[in-house]
Every structure is written in structure tokens, then in C-alpha cells.
Design goal:
- By secondary structure, the protein is of the alpha+beta class.
- It has one domain.
- About 30% of the residues lie in helices and about 10% in strands.
- The chain has 5 helices and 9 strands.
- The protein has a 4-stranded antiparallel β-sheet. It has a 3-stranded mixed β-sheet with strand order 6-5-8, with no helix packed on it. The chain has a two-stranded antiparallel ribbon with strand order 1-2.
- The longest helix has about 50 residues.
- It is elongated.
């Protein structure tokens, strides 16, 4: 037998044996380790993804509120007044009182006096303004699918004409140059906020972010359907609280349930009378 034949016999059999050897798989221990690592990675990613989603919704809602304020200004330029809030049953149309002295029944056609049916605890009149997205009740929605709220100042003259919602009432108020001024307030805390009557609620001393807002636009945030009963959120009229709707609202950075005045995630913006007047002057509607 030659050397070549001998090598072929020896190494050939080795190669044949190698090809017939079964492949080695993962053991149960190795699989468990892999699954544990994947689980750890996912547990770290899920909170991050969740927080990013919530931040995106917050940003989208803030954008919706700002765009709504611009639409309100456009409405004022076109109509010489601001719209009344929609009621829970007006299907997105602004809602008025029949009477000017006492409210009476709700009507959806603007009366001369301009008195709003629910000035402090209504909704954005999305159908009247022609904006979306809206639900089946015609209510403008935030990024969590909850209705966006809207409040309007309720000041009037001695003849019960409501300056900011009566036809050409803004021009009348501008020309008169006298009180009353728009009176909606936004406070940085509910602590010390007085609510003797809806029309005289006041922020505590030094806690007013504004005390002469014409309108307030706000979202009740993510917890609209399940929360909203904390001390601060209670003053932004919502379905979870029984506090009488009043002219004062609360806004500050978000807080958790363990905070002094409880959980807070409402998003609140307001319309300054100076911005309103400036826009109407620029449009040639004032003086």
C-alpha cells in the first residue's frame, strides 16, 4: 500500500465521520440566558417608547390649542366678536342664553345681547369655527381623543350687553374705553383660590398668571376620563369634579399624584385682550 493510499484511507474516514456528526444546538440554559437578555432590553425600551408617545401627544395637543386661538382671532376679525362656547348638547355649535338678565333656555342663534349659555365650562365650538378633528358630538378633540374645553369672559355693560360675544361688542368696548375689563384668571396654584361665586373667583395674591384673559382654551390631558379630581385640576371644569364652574383656572407644569395639590396634566392657554385688539387693529376692524 502506498503512502497516498494510506493517507486517503485514514483522512478520508475522518472526513466522513465529521460529516456524519450531528450539529450542536442551544442548551436550555443558553436559551434562558438569551430570553433574559431580550426581556431586559425590552423592559428598558418600553418606558422610553411610552414616554415618547405621551410627549408627542402633549406636543400635538399644545399645537391644537394654539391653532384654535388663531382661529378664534380670525373669527373675531370677521364677526366683531368672539364665539360662545358650545354646550354638551349643542353638537359643536356655539350656545347662547335666551335672555340677557336671566339666562333662560338655550338657543343656538346669536341674540343681540350675546350672553353665553355656559361661559366658563363649555367646549370649543368646532362646528361653528369649521375646525377638526371632531367627534360625533361636534367637539374638537385633543391627542388623547378628549374634547377640548373653552371659556369666555362674561363681562357686560349696564344694559346687559356682553361686550366680547355680542355683535360688534368688541368695537363697542374699545370705543368706550371704560370698565369692565375681561376678567378670566389663570392661577399657578389652586391654594388660596377663592370661589365665593362663579363671577368673583380670584387667584391667591401673587399667584395669577393673568387676571384679564378674554378666553381660556384647555385640554384635560391624558387623565381626563379617569382622573381630574385633584386640587388643581378641580378648578378646570371637568366631568370628574363637582366644583362650580367659575372664571378662574389653574395651570402649571405637570405633577404626579404625590404632589401637594395632586396629579396635574392639564394644558392651558389663554387669549390676552391686547393680542385680540392688536389683531383687529391690523385687520382694520378697530378703532
Amino acid at each position: 500500500m502506498t503512502v497516498h493510499q494510506l493517507n486517503h484511507r485514514c483522512y478520508g474516514s475522518t472526513r466522513q465521520a465529521a460529516t456524519l456528526r450531528p450539529g450542536r444546538g442551544f442548551t436550555l440554559v443558553e436559551m434562558a440566558v438569551v430570553l433574559m437578555i431580550v426581556g431586559l432590553l425590552l423592559s428598558g425600551l418600553i418606558p422610553t417608547i411610552s414616554s415618547q408617545v405621551e410627549q408627542r401627544r402633549t406636543n400635538e395637543t399644545s399645537k391644537t390649542l394654539k391653532e384654535t386661538k388663531d382661529v378664534l382671532l380670525g373669527f373675531a376679525v370677521a364677526n366683531g366678536r368672539l364665539p360662545c362656547p358650545a354646550s354638551a348638547t349643542s353638537n359643536g355649535v356655539e350656545s347662547f342664553c335666551t335672555g340677557s338678565g336671566s339666562c333662560g333656555a338655550e338657543v343656538l342663534v346669536p341674540p343681540t345681547h350675546g350672553r353665553c349659555f355656559n361661559p366658563y365650562d363649555g367646549f370649543v365650538p368646532a362646528v361653528t369655527l369649521g375646525i377638526d378633528p371632531i367627534n360625533n358630538q361636534g367637539q374638537l378633540l385633543d391627542a388623547w381623543g378628549n374634547p377640548v374645553r373653552y371659556a369666555i369672559t362674561n363681562v357686560k355693560d349696564t344694559s346687559n350687553n356682553f361686550y366680547f360675544t355680542a355683535s360688534d361688542g368688541i368695537k363697542t368696548r374699545w370705543n368706550s374705553g371704560i370698565s369692565p375689563n375681561p376678567d378670566l384668571q389663570v392661577c399657578s396654584t389652586s391654594t388660596g383660590l377663592t370661589t365665593a361665586t362663579p363671577g368673583s373667583a380670584d387667584c391667591a395674591s401673587g399667584k395669577a398668571l393673568t387676571n384679564n384673559a378674554v378666553a381660556v382654551i384647555y385640554s384635560l390631558g391624558k387623565n381626563s376620563a379617569t382622573g381630574g379630581a385633584s386640587g388643581d385640576e378641580a378648578h378646570n371644569p371637568n366631568p370628574q369634579t363637582a366644583i362650580t364652574a367659575d372664571r378662574a383656572f389653574v395651570f402649571h407644569e405637570p405633577t404626579q399624584s404625590g404632589a401637594t395639590n395632586g396629579e396635574f396634566d392639564d394644558i392651558v392657554i389663554w387669549l390676552s385682550p391686547n393680542i385680540l385688539y392688536n389683531r383687529m387693529v391690523m385687520a382694520g376692524k378697530l378703532p
